[in-house]
């Protein structure tokens, strides 16, 4: 499996400014090792988040941990949200010179690695494609072939520098045109990190919790999950996989299966086409766009659940599987020794069926 352990260490070190502020607000040192599980909830990234932690052994209480989580997610939104008009990403995509923070720099590096690993199937520089199909930061649908071709000319991480710091000016600023390395700065891409951003933010929150001594935890940001240790019953965590039927827009209401994860740390993410799509002239257009062709995918795979060493990897590779389709996705998962997967697809008769890797711990179906 493609590992990001070294990259995560750099990421967390670079994010130390936020963590230091949060640590200063932390108090209430635990004096008991007996399990003390609490749930912390809030709103971020357009939805609710849920964090479950065992405070035994932690140097912080629930209130200070929530303050830290909210601080991280606010900083994350100000850096990488494509829907925040004042974020670094929005301004960068608009052509402004920005001073990138450590998170902005690190996720760009990660995106390049995922682009290479997936042969361009996961391409954060294809934001223009996502926009014209109506699944990006703007609303649109059914673009012409000419618009698709034009968007593809500006896409491709292989057109860009591998590291943002290589394009920084003497004053530390960088513009979008500065990172285009193929000699066509007039063809600037639109960066869209939706395929990896929430998984990345889940990893950041989990790393913050561990920095305060939390070992038993579950972080759920919009369905991108990190868990480690055990649940309040002393057992591995159990996580539901939503049934990928059109209209199932609320997580946990209708499940297809339940998996078991932990005590080792892992990231768990499901990607599917059953919540974001539109229908024109009787045809369903899925929100998974293949950046290599410029068009939405059209295959039998309904959802892909990936278990990886961290959530950003699971996030990226769940998207990759949705681009590939059933057969290629299954082959890819089986080729990765540290990756597990659960694929839900429609069989030839339109009935829902599943494929799972040998190590995927499905406990209920």
Please characterize this protein's 3D structure.
With 365 residues, this protein is α+β, with helices and mostly antiparallel strands. It contains 11 helices and 15 strands. The strands form 4 sheets. Strands 1-2-3-4-7-12-13-14 form an 8-stranded antiparallel sheet. Strands 5-6-15 form a 3-stranded antiparallel sheet, with no helix packed on it. α1 runs antiparallel to α5, α2 (16-24) packs antiparallel against α3 and α10 packs antiparallel against α11. It is globular and about 60 Å long.
Strand order of the largest sheet: 1-2-3-4-7-12-13-14
Morphology: globular
Structural class: alpha+beta
SSE order: HHEEHHHHHHHEEEEEEEEEEHHEEE
């Amino acid at each position: 499996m493609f590992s990001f352990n070294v990259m995560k260490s750099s990421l967390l070190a670079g994010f130390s400014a936020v963590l230091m502020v949060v640590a200063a607000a932390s108090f209430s040192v635990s004096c008991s090792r007996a399990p003390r599980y609490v749930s912390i909830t809030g709103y971020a990234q357009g939805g609710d988040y849920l964090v479950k932690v065992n405070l035994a052994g932690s140097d912080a209480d629930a209130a200070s941990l929530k303050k830290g989580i909210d601080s991280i997610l606010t900083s994350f939104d100000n850096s990488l949200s494509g829907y925040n008009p004042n974020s670094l990403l929005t301004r960068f995509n608009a052509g402004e010179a920005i001073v990138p923070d450590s998170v902005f720099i690190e996720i760009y590096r990660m995106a390049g690695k995922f682009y290479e690993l997936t042969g361009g199937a996961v391409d954060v520089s294809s934001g223009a494609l996502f926009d014209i199909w109506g699944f990006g930061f703007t609303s649109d649908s059914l673009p012409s072939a000419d618009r698709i071709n034009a968007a593809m000319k500006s896409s491709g991480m292989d057109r860009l520098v591998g590291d943002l710091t290589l394009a920084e000016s003497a004053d530390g600023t960088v513009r979008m045109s500065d990172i285009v390395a193929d000699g066509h700065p007039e063809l600037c891409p639109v960066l869209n990190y939706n395929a990896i951003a929430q998984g990345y933010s889940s990893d950041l929150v989990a790393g913050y919790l561990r920095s305060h001594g939390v070992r038993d935890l579950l972080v759920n940001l919009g369905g991108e999950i990190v868990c480690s240790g055990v649940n309040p019953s002393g057992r591995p965590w159990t996580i539901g996989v939503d049934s990928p039927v059109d209209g199932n827009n609320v997580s946990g209401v209708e499940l297809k299966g339940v998996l078991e994860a932990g005590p080792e740390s892992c990231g768990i993410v499901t990607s599917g086409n059953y919540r974001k799509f539109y229908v024109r002239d009787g045809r369903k257009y899925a929100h998974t766009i293949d950046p290599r062709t410029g068009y939405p995918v059209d295959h039998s795979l309904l959802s892909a659940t990936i278990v990886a060493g961290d959530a950003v990897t699971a996030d990226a590779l769940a998207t990759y599987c949705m681009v590939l389709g059933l057969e290629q996705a299954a082959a890819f998962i089986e080729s990765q020794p540290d990756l597990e997967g659960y694929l839900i697809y429609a069989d030839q008769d339109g009935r829902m069926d599943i494929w799972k890797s040998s190590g995927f711990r499905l406990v209920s179906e």
